């Protein structure tokens, strides 16, 4: 029952105030305004850790655009947040903006007509041009700090658009708890984490073969690779041994021939075993290379023996490292072959041939080598056309190269079995929802072949907080980097002098140089729990929210965002970053293809929101299980809209029957007012639904909880409400009327709360008609509150089946449902007939029946049959 107002004797019952024509239109704006004023989604700063439920929400890219995939996954998170709040948890639900990366860099450049030059000094009075220059060569070159300030100015407008849309969707985010991944606080957190990893030897710098995108001119991490099928061809040409015998290799990359350091075959390949330990000479360039054995060589691929070049792919890197081979790299960061003939090509013939490649792009160099091979009659077969997987940077459009460069790395188990096992074990400390997603995590960790490359050769981003001392020849000492103190952060080594040095010493012998690179965006995004939880800024808050309770995200970034977050929490805090994950699937178009901006098949969120309303869109999203790829279905949104409208209308009917909060049955002996078997049956069924829905929600299976609640709701509206209308009007006496009013009130009270996480607008609209406050400030329903009502759910099932059969008889006779039934025979098992008999007056009134003859069939069949239906004469429908 309702609680008393403090200091009064009477319950604070509210007289229902129902609009003449309830509608969904306008609810989003109306209720969002109320929620903001009431501050019901604000985090309680006084909550203890055991009271808190913290969510590490994915920060969307503010410089991009939202599509229905965002609505889908963010709604699923919000459903969980609202449930936990109703369960009594103090929900910490922040939302950040990911403005640290290429999309933001490009947007700022194009919008203002500026470019970032980290060597430029900061200009506190800088103002961008009113209009960007048409030619990029005329754009302003500004400091990194000025560029970041422009980013923050521009993204404020972008973020407002996002916030408005998320608010319309009904996200119960605490909008006071926001952050940007490029702001001062995030840069400080990112640099602090990096410095702590450096000082604990979890981060290091090394010169090594690195995946490289020649378009963006930046290093690329393993997690950022995307394999694409591309046409290619095998070219077959011979190496020769001292006796002039040919060894034919097959390769798709003939341009790497001058970078060849060895040939390799499988140790059990009998065709080449006699050559292991011997040398052969390359065609065109006359370089002697050894023949090696390695188990990664595939006897079935090509001719079974392959070139090892430095470097064609990461397999070359593995062979190079494990076989201790020399480095003969020729492709530079710009994607061109070096212009100088390499020292290992010593013959005049070889040096002349190399000049045909010098300075050319990879594609042009390939054409040149093939032409040289053809001219020398060295191709042993026509090129064999194939289609094969080629690695690209996920944002790039040219195949990746492997170049040697100095980079920064974080240890992630790729080269350390003990650390790899530790990170696998960390994954097992997390509860995965759905559970099968854990295997994707473990497969990724166990398949790593190197540490996490975190440096990027970009201008915009979080600067790597490192300087290097220069010797007397102005050469950097990479083994003894200069690190700032944490209280100096954030810093920018490109524009600020190293600690203990003056700016005039930059680049001078005995001076310093700043690290020119920035941190990979994932190196900062991996710290969203630390950033949102205000790590080191507010230790009290951080200790109350970390480790977070939930990380919601898509399954496609398990290998990037999720894994990198586990790596950082492991090295920085010796724990997991969160205890639960909720992994969403993809949104598919009608052709069952993933929706993406690059494919041009996305739907803008405003369209379905304006057409169907937020509750309908949320219903579609919440109907999908975690981890399941789901089609964008208008039909599901229509069902959700129908459900929300029906909730408004059935509530209006109940309040029209005189139902008030006072009639709600709670715990204790309140159930005595429920005297009718049909009412008892409904509430017994409701008790089971509440218990099951709660269990499913607790297991993050909100889709199953919604399905159960919805099934009960339609049975409630289509069967129960139709059956009890006559009694609700008082036709069977005051006691029977009191019973139905209490049942209607109790069912409605529980249904509103069960639907609240999914349909926040319709449920709160109804709640405010008859209750004080918001349904989102109410507690989640308890099955135990209905313990005082004893009934058999099968009664409702049997009576509803009889109701359906009698309706069907009218429909088959092609008469209106209001047509009277003069008589009919209802047959079924003794159990079902007893159930129908207990609610016979309700059934007679609902079907306008004069005589319903009940007969037991003597069989245990659960089916009820209706025969011998005699209808009053009436007009046809």
Textual characterization of the structure:
The two termini are 45 Å apart. It is built from 24 helices and 29 strands. Helix 16 packs across helix 17, helix 18 packs antiparallel against helix 19 and helix 18 packs across helix 22. The N terminus is likely disordered. 37% of the residues lie in helices and 16% in strands. The strands form eleven sheets. It has a four-stranded antiparallel sheet. By secondary structure, the protein is an alpha/beta fold.
The N- and C-terminal alpha carbons lie at a distance of 45 Å
SS strand fraction: 15-25%
Task: Work out the radius of gyration.
Answer: 35 Å
Q: Which stretches of 5+ consecutive residues score pLDDT under 50?
A: 1-10
SSE class: alpha/beta
The spatial strand order of the largest sheet comes to 8-7-16-18
Q: How much helicity do the residues have?
A: 25-40%
Q: How many helical stretches? A: 24
Number of strands: 29
* Main sheet attributes: strand count, strand direction, barrel closure: 4 strands, antiparallel
Averaged pLDDT: 91
Shape: elongated
């Amino acid at each position: 029952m309702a609680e008393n107002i403090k200091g009064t004797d009477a319950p604070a019952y509210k007289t229902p105030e129902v609009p003449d024509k309830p509608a969904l239109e306008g609810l989003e704006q109306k209720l969002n305004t109320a929620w903001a004023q009431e501050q019901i989604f604000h985090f309680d700063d006084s909550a203890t850790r055991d009271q808190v439920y913290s969510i590490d929400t994915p920060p969307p890219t503010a410089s991009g655009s939202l599509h229905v995939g965002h609505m889908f996954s963010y709604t699923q998170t919000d459903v969980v947040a609202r449930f936990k709040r109703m369960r009594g948890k103090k929900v910490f639900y922040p939302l950040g903006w990911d403005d640290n990366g290429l999309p933001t860099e490009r947007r700022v450049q194009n919008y203002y007509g500026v470019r970032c030059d980290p060597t430029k000094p900061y200009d506190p009075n800088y103002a961008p041009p009113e209009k960007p220059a048409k030619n990029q060569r005329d754009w302003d070159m500004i400091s990194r700090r000025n560029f970041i300030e422009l980013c923050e100015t521009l993204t404020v407008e972008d973020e407002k658009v996002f916030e408005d849309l998320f608010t319309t969707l009904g996200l119960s985010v605490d909008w006071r708890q926001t952050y940007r991944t490029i702001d001062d606080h995030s840069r400080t957190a990112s640099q602090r984490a990096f410095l702590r990893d450096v000082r604990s030897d979890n981060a290091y710098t090394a010169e090594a073969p690195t995946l490289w995108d020649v378009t963006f001119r930046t290093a690329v991490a393993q997690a950022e690779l995307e394999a694409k099928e591309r046409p290619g061809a095998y070219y077959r040409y011979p190496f020769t041994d001292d006796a002039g015998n040919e060894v034919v290799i097959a390769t798709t990359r003939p341009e790497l021939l001058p970078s060849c350091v060895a040939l390799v075959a499988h140790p059990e390949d009998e065709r080449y075993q006699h050559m292991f330990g011997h040398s052969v000479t390359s065609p065109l360039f006359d370089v002697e290379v050894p023949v090696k054995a390695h188990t990664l060589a595939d006897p079935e691929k090509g001719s079974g023996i392959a070139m090892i070049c430095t470097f064609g792919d990461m397999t070359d890197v593995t062979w190079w490292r494990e076989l201790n081979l020399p480095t003969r790299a020729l492709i530079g960061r710009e994607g061109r072959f070096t212009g100088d003939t390499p020292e290992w090509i010593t013959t005049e013939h070889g040096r002349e041939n190399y000049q045909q490649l010098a300075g050319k792009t990879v594609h042009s160099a390939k054409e040149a080598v093939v032409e040289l091979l053809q001219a020398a009659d060295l191709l042993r077969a026509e090129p064999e056309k194939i289609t094969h997987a080629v690695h690209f940077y996920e944002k790039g459009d040219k195949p990746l190269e492997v170049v040697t460069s100095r980079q920064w790395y974080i240890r992630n188990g790729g080269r350390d079995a003990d650390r790899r096992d530790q990170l696998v074990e960390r994954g097992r400390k997390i509860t995965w929802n759905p559970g099968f997603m854990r295997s994707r995590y473990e497969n990724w960790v166990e398949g790593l072949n190197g540490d996490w490359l975190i440096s990027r050769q970009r201008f915009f981003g979080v600067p790597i907080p490192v300087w290097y001392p220069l010797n007397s020849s102005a050469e950097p000492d990479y083994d003894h980097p200069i690190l700032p103190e944490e209280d100096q952060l954030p810093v920018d080594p490109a524009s600020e002098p190293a600690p203990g040095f003056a700016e005039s010493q930059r680049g001078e012998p005995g001076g310093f140089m700043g690290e020119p690179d920035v941190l990979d965006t994932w190196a900062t995004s991996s710290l969203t729990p630390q950033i949102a939880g205000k790590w080191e800024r507010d230790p009290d808050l951080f200790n109350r929210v970390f480790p977070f309770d939930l990380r919601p995200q898509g399954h496609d970034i398990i290998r990037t965002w999720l894994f990198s977050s586990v790596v950082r929490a492991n090295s920085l805090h010796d724990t997991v970053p969160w205890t639960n994950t909720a992994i969403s699937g993809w949104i598919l178009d009608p052709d069952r293809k993933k929706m993406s901006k690059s494919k041009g098949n996305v739907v803008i969120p405003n369209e379905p929101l304006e057409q169907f309303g937020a509750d309908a869109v949320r219903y579609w999203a919440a109907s999908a299980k975690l981890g399941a790829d789901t089609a964008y279905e208008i039909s599901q949104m229509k069902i959700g809209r129908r459900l929300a409208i029906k909730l408004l209308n059935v509530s209006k009917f109940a309040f029209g029957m005189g139902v008030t909060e006072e009639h709600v049955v709670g715990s204790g002996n309140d159930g005595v007012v429920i005297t009718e078997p049909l009412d008892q049956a409904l509430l017994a069924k409701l008790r089971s639904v509440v218990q099951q829905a709660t269990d499913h929600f607790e297991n993050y299976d909100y889709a199953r909880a919604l399905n159960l609640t919805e099934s009960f709701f339609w049975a409630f509206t289509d069967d129960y409400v139709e059956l009890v209308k006559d009694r609700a009007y008082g036709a069977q006496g005051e006691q029977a009327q009191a019973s139905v009013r209490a049942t209607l009130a109790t069912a409605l009270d529980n249904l509103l709360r069960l639907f609240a996480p999914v349909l926040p607008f319709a449920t709160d609209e109804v709640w405010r008609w008859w209750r004080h406050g918001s349904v989102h400030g109410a507690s989640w329903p308890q099955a135990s509150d209905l313990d005082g009502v004893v009934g058999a759910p099968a009664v409702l099932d049997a009576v509803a089946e009889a109701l359906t059969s009698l309706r069907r008889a009218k429909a088959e006779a092609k008469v209106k449902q209001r047509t009277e039934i003069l008589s009919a025979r209802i047959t079924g098992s003794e159990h079902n007939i007893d159930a129908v008999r207990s609610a016979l007056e309700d059934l007679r009134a609902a079907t306008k029946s004069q005589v319903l003859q009940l007969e037991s069939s003597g069989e245990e069949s659960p089916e009820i049959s209706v025969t011998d239906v005699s209808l009053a004469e009436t007009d046809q429908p």
